[in-house]
Amino acid sequence: MQNSGISIIIAKIDKIKTVIKEKINKMSAAHSRQEELECIKQRQLAGNIIIAVLTERITVRKGLLLFPKGFTDPSVHAAWHALCHYEADEDIKAKDLEFNNQQIELLELIAFTFKDGKPLPQNIIEAYKPYYQDDPVSYESGIKGLIKKLLRFINF
Q: What angle do CA 9, 16, 22 make, to 5 degrees?
């Protein structure tokens, strides 16, 4: 008799565990979907910023400042670096028209890929990964991080 009582309790505990796991899975799926929607929104914003830069409605520096804050999407990260390189290579672009055209084509590709919220091809993401360590977006928060960002931004 005690054995069957324990069996019933164990069965109920197992049922509760199953229900809890299902709820956690549903919540996790909803969270993942929310993260994906946020990435899509950030990509679209980044694409619009790049188009504004290419059409000279805003400067590159203004565009970099307008980029989404706290992004974790590797596609947005790569786009941010592509825009940094576009500004940093100003002297090379002035001398080499082919190099200039290649940078513009890359930024156009990024902008049009982001228009639909799609991620960038992996080869583009990988091309900019070496620069992530020096990324001013990832500096620590607080006054020390702010000073580092400002010094980096004005090229000290």
A: 155
| H-only helix segments in the chain | 2-54, 60-66, 74-88, 90-95, 97-115, 122-128, 143-153
Instruction: Please indicate, yes or no, if residue 35 is contained in any of the structural domains.
Output: no
73: alpha, beta or left? (left if phi > 0; alpha if psi -120 to 50): beta
Radius of gyration of the chain (CA): 24
Q: Give the residues of the chain that fall short of pLDDT 70.
A: 1-3, 27-31, 132-142, 144-156
Full residue range of the structural domain in which residue 102 is found: 41-153
Separation CA 111–CA 46 (nearest Å): 7
How far apart are the C-alpha atoms of 105 and 1, rounded to whole Å?
Answer: 78
